[in-house]
Design brief:
Shape: globular
Helix content: 25-40%
Largest sheet: 8 strands, parallel
CATH topology: Arginase, Chain A
Order of helices and strands: EHEEHEHEHEHEHEHEHEH
Mean pLDDT: 95
Oligomer: single chain
CATH superfamily: Ureohydrolase domain
Structural class: alpha/beta
Number of strands: 10
Distance between the termini: 25 Å
Low-confidence stretches: none
């Protein structure tokens, strides 16, 4: 697979060439502007680029961690994947192939998606290497419909496809689902759901982490967060994680002894004149990288 690297001026954080070369970077960020099944608002295909652009205004120094994370890791950003006319299964195959190639290069892969469907292709690649994989899903929606609008590769069905792989799923922040999704969750021990109304329980973070295996992939749908903070998303829902709750969860997971193998951020839908959502997601990516142990 040819490795096409973004110019440093377009790279995550806009960091210098030495800290963003493929060879010198532990972290690789891939952009997956795939949007085919958006069911409410469209425009998530612009999300990856918007996050990268917003990241240029994130401070290098993290006061909580007392370090400039990028200097320890190196962060390389790749040119966006061109899907052409590929959709559904073919698009997922392309994502799996590209992600698999990066994993084989011993890179920690961060993926910026458009619609949430991309996570299926990514998880398939990680499952090829990690046989004890589980998925931590931050989301307003369960995304467990067998199909939506006649398409089993819909963004509303992505976790149903992950469930088909028999990979344990821990969902956090869910507050919108159909009855069939609720019944599926009740029928299996493989899916743990921390609903939005349960975020007031003091032990919800422990419950979410304990339900995960020792190898964890994180998928972050931006609508999992409170829309008063993160509003530029395809399908907003009232409620959701606060910024503090999100950081508390990711910090605890990083300190739990479990191995986080990769993560994605999806469903950012940029809006003209608003930058808070993409800026917060860029900062969240940097915070998580700072928390993790490599």
């Amino acid at each position: 697979m040819p490795i096409n690297i973004l110019d440093p001026k377009e790279n995550f954080l806009g960091i210098d060439k030495n800290s963003s070369s493929f060879e010198n970077s532990k972290i690789v960020i891939q952009s997956l502007p795939y949007e085919h099944t958006s069911s409410y608002q469209e425009g998530s295909k612009h999300g990856p680029k918007a996050i990268l652009e917003a990241s240029h205004y994130v401070e290098f120094y993290d006061a909580e961690l007392d370090k400039e994370t990028y200097k320890d890791l190196g962060i390389c950003s790749l040119e966006a994947i061109d899907f052409g006319k590929l959709v559904d299964a073919k698009a997922m195959e392309l994502i799996e192939q590209n992600t698999d190639a990066l994993i084989k290069e011993n890179k920690f892969v961060v993926s910026l998606g458009a619609e949430h469907t991309v996570t299926y292709g990514i998880v398939k690649a990680f499952a090829n290497k990690y046989k004890n994989l589980s998925v931590l899903q931050i989301d307003a929606h369960s995304d467990l419909r067998e199909e939506y609008e006649g398409n089993k590769y819909s963004h509303a069905s992505v976790m149903a496809r992950v469930n088909d792989l028999k990979i344990p799923i821990s969902q956090v922040g869910v507050r919108a689902q159909c009855k069939e999704e609720a019944e599926l969750i009740k029928s299996t021990n493989r899916i743990t759901t921390i609903y939005n109304h349960q975020l007031e329980d003091k032990n919800w973070i422990d419950e979410a982490i304990e339900s995960l295996s020792d190898e964890v992939y994180i998928t972050i749908d931006a609508d999992g967060f409170d829309p008063s903070l993160i509003s530029a998303v395809g399908t907003p829902e009232p409620g959701g994680l606060s910024w503090k709750q999100g950081l508390d969860l990711f910090r605890a997971l990083a300190h739990s002894g479990k191995k986080v193998v990769g993560f994605d951020v999806v469903e950012v839908l940029p809006k003209k004149g608003e930058i808070l959502t993409e800026y917060c997601m860029a900062q969240l990516i940097y915070k998580i990288l700072g928390y993790l142990k490599f």
